[in-house]
Specification:
The protein has about 60 residues and is an all-alpha fold. Helix content is about 80%, strand content about 0%.
Length: about 60
């Protein structure tokens, strides 16, 4: 996908500390974690649908 080097990660962390209060960082990371979890679930659901869809189409073609 894309890669981040150490310098890019440090810049992102610095920007986060400047714009997000340190007290709010844990809640921010929880929200980001939930977002990534939901995106991962959606990706897995799409994979399942893509894998099962051709089988269902074959069943419907035989009528």
């Amino acid at each position: 996908m894309f890669s981040l080097g150490l310098s890019e990660i440090l810049i992102i962390l610095l920007v986060m500390i400047v714009f997000i209060k340190p007290e709010e960082l844990p809640e921010f990371f929880r929200k980001v974690g939930r977002l990534f979890g939901e995106l991962n679930r959606m990706k897995n659901d799409l994979k399942k649908m893509a894998e099962t869809k051709p089988e269902e189409d074959d069943k419907n073609d035989n009528y």
